[in-house]
Amino acid sequence: MQLFIDSANIVHIREIASLGILDGVTTNPSLIAKEKGGFDAIIGSITAAVHGPISVECVSERAEQIVPEAERIAARHPDIVVKVPITEEGLKAVHRLSQDGIRTNVTLVFSVHQAILAAKAGATYVSPFVGRLDDIGEDGMQVVADIKAAFSRYGFPTMIIVASVRNLEHVRKATLLGADVVTVPYTVIKEMVRHPLTDAGIAKFLDDWKKVKR
Ligand code: E4P
Fold this sequence. Notes:
Blueprint: E1 2-6, H1 10-17, E2 24-26, H2 29-33, H3 39-49, E3 54-57, H4 63-74, E4 80-85, H5 88-99, E5 104-109, H6 112-121, E6 125-128, H7 130-135, H8 140-154, E7 159-162, H9 168-177, E8 181-184, H10 186-193, H11 196-209
Parallel strand pairs: 1-2, 1-8, 2-3, 3-4, 4-5, 5-6, 6-7, 7-8
Helix pairs in contact: 1-3, 4-5, 5-6, 6-8, 8-9
C-alpha cells in the first residue's frame, strides 16, 4: 500500500517526507486555497519536495477545456497526476488524456458505478471520498470494498486511492481492504506514529536506564 499526504501545506509535506514513509501527495483547490502564495509556487515547492505521484486538480468543466488544462498541469512536472472530477465531460476528457499517456486521478467518487466508469475511461486512479460519505450517514468504506471487488473481478488496472480520510479507523480499514493508496491528512499521519503505550514504554525505559551503573 502506498501512503500519500492529503495536503498543500509545504511545511507539513516536508516534515512527513523527512520520515521516509511518503509515496505521494494529493491536493485539491480547497487545500491550495488555504495556503499562502500562488498556485505556481505551491505546486513547484511540492514537486521539489516529494518524488512520487502528486495530484493536481483541473477546474474546467467542459472536456474541450479540461484536456488542455490537464495538459498544461501535467507539463509542469513528470510526477504530476491530473485530477478530474467524475462527470460526463470529465469521462470524455479522461479517455482522451489516457490515450495521450497523461495520468489521471478521477476524484469526487462516491459510488462503485462512478468508479467503474472512470476505470473504463482509462483513469490511472479513482478517489472514493470515504469521510464525506460517512458524514451523510453512508458507509464510505463499503464503497471502497465494492470498488475493490469490482476492479479485481474484471481486472481493471485503475488504482484505488482512499480519500477524504478523517481518522485512524479509515486507514486501518483501507489497509485491510487492500486499497492501492490511502491519502491521509497531516494530523492523522501524526496519529499513526503515536500510541500511548509507546510513550509510557519510552518513559519507563528512560527512567529505568537512569538506575543502570555505567
Ligand atoms: C483527496 O484527493 C481529497 O483532496 C480529499 O481527501 C478530500 O477530503 P475532505 O473530504 O476532507 O475535503
